[in-house]
Write a structure and sequence with these properties.
With 318 residues, this protein is α/β, with parallel strands linked by helices. Helices cover 38% and strands 20% of the residues. It has 13 helices and 13 strands.
Length: 318
């Protein structure tokens, strides 16, 4: 049976699938050619990340397709309900990339509190002529320890962020419509651990009381953070979005940065991907990455092998 991994798959994932008797195709097929390719090559499984979309047209055009797999968490590029209605299995790997995304959140937080995003732009230009000036410009750093981190969306990734925050000595507060409380187990390298119980609060309270805010919510209609929410925040708040573009109003974000309400933002996702607004890309108070939350070797290995296990279980054991 053939598996088309249209947005790539790790070597460990290929190995596991081949061992299970599948042929893995890693040819990158253009979006408009996907349905034709699936039918021509009798593909039973299509695996995607965020680039390829599997909508109703492909589902209708490919009666031989049995599984649609998403390497990662969000499945907004797949018509999930329609596919399941048509008898297809739709699978994803919600746990595989949690640690990688959480580490990127802290990469942005550390970058923001020590101005690394701006220093890395200006040091190559002025480091040899204005060293003391730059030293003065970046002299007002902030420590994360002892500060309050507000986590909006307290699922697997939000809880992975909480573990790291607790390890750093931060206070963690969280808001989630569906999670009332969670016990966060913080593991240390020598086998010791601590359990910390966190009871979620209202979104408004989290926004009001946080020194830093990070979002871990799925794509949705309307903004989670808009002009009104920025007004509720503490002055000099830092905000990070490694979740989905469109959950923060970017126009309101730029206003809040320009007014000094928000100290810095860290963005891995954007309202207009893959062509983010130039005002966002050029803003000196924004730390930027190109949607790479899950893009670590370890996460991709876990994603590949987890997808392989699910596919083998669904198709070989039935």
């Amino acid at each position: 049976m053939k598996v088309l991994a249209n947005d790539g798959i790790s070597k460990s994932g290929i190995k596991a699938l081949e061992k299970g008797g599948f042929e893995v195709i890693t040819t990158k097929v253009a979006q408009e050619q996907v349905a034709n390719y699936i039918n021509t090559h009798d593909v039973k499984v299509i695996l995607v990340r965020s680039a390829t979309k599997v909508r109703k047209d492909i589902i209708d055009a490919c009666p031989g397709l049995k599984i649609i797999g998403r390497g990662g968490v969000g499945m907004d590029n797949i018509d999930v309900a329609y596919a399941r209605e048509k008898g297809l299995h739709v699978i994803n790997t919600p746990a595989s990339s949690s640690e990688s995304v959480a580490e990127l959140v802290f990469a942005h937080l550390f970058t923001g509190v020590r101005f690394l995003h701006d220093a890395n732009r200006n040091m190559p230009l002025e480091g040899d002529t204005n060293f003391d000036g730059l030293k003065k410009a970046y002299a007002n750093g902030i420590e994360l320890r002892g500060k309050t981190l507000g986590i909006i969306g307290f699922g697997r990734i939000g809880q992975a962020v909480a573990k790291m925050a607790l390890g750093l000595g931060m206070k963690v507060i969280a808001a989630d419509k569906y999670v009332n409380e969670a016990v966060i187990r913080v593991d240390f390298y020598n086998g010791q651990f601590i359990n910390v119980e966190i009871v979620t609060e209202s979104l408004e309270d989290v926004i009001k009381h946080s020194d830093f805010i990070t979002l871990h919510v799925p794509a949705q209609d309307g903004y989670v953070i808009d002009k009104e929410e920025f007004q509720l925040m503490k002055d000099n708040v830092g905000i990070v979005n490694c979740a989905r573009g469109g959950v923060i109003n970017e126009v309101a974000l730029i206003e809040a940065l320009d007014e000094g309400k928000v100290l810095f933002a860290g963005l891995d996702v954007f309202e207009k991907e893959p062509t983010p607004e130039i005002q966002i890309l050029m803003h000196p108070k924004i730390s930027l990455t190109p949607h790479i939350g899950a893009a670590t070797e370890e996460a991709q290995d876990r994603i590949g092998t987890e997808l392989a296990e699910q596919i083998i279980s669904l198709l070989k054991n039935n």
